[in-house]
Amino acid sequence: MKIPTDQVPQADNIQAIEISLQAVSEGANTYQDIAYALGYKERQGRYYRLACEILRFTYKTGVNQSAITPFGQQYLEANTEDRKEIFGQAVLSSSLFQRVIPLFESRPEGISKEELERFLSHVTETTPKMVGRRTSSVISWLEHAGIIRSVDGIYVLNSLPESVQVVNYNDPTEPLLPSHFALTEYNIIAQRVKAFQNTITFEIDRVKRDRANDAHNRLTNLLAHKIRKKGGIPKSNILVDLATQVNGGKFIFEVKSTTDRNMRSQIRRGISQLYEYRYLQNISDANLVLVLENPLTDNLGWYQDYLIDDRGIYFMWDGDNNFYCPEAIKNNLSFLFESN
Asked: Helix H segments across 93-182?
């Protein structure tokens, strides 16, 4: 599934984006008005209006009418440092950039502009004439947000900005941890999620109930913190609590709040969810990790062998805001247990 052309920016001048946003806030609601404010040709007014829409700073109120969003107003009222953080949050919420980030994750040595251009040609609805300018815009936005940096002409992924705890994917059909970056891979995941639609509403409601639990949120945030400290990018969508790629390994986490009374049912639910999510995301090589609020009760101690040896699922539990796991699998999850 290709990213639509109206979600791919062609506006590489960050200052011009800010001028456009300021102009809209002052009543310049057509692309001609924006072009005039910039001193650019009319077509550039269209590009910069679209850039503000991609960033969710403005929205269309008509065919050629724009208005500022509360998020855009927040950006205008922020100081320089806060603006950069808000810009980074906006970039990481965009479907295009959520597809681009895993490419950088897979190449810790960095990628060239030409490689990024070929990727965008493959996965977006763009043209050979436009892809060069759009690649420049993608790089400009990522650099301004501090998400990538240039090293001898190669672009390298940085750690997440401090203001971003987790990258939340709004589209469940978008791969969290793609392997091949081929269009067929994106299509397979989209097809699987659509086939799951009959039960997805029930599943989402169940996930929402889980995430409303304070213990669930605390454990998820602690897990995300440890992932970020090791240079990984914690990601989630409406189904998956967390997924990440660290040290070349891929991991899907399911977090469960537990009590003595519900532990077995929570473990059983967690097992089925992990298998389903790995299938939906089409990452057969992903490591599955069940995260529990409490250690196994004595009568459920047998679950350790069942999970690890029979099901191939790692598990760990909370203990005073730190994680514990069986010694036998500690090396497999070393990035969560090394001192931070």
From this structure: 95-106, 113-123, 128-144
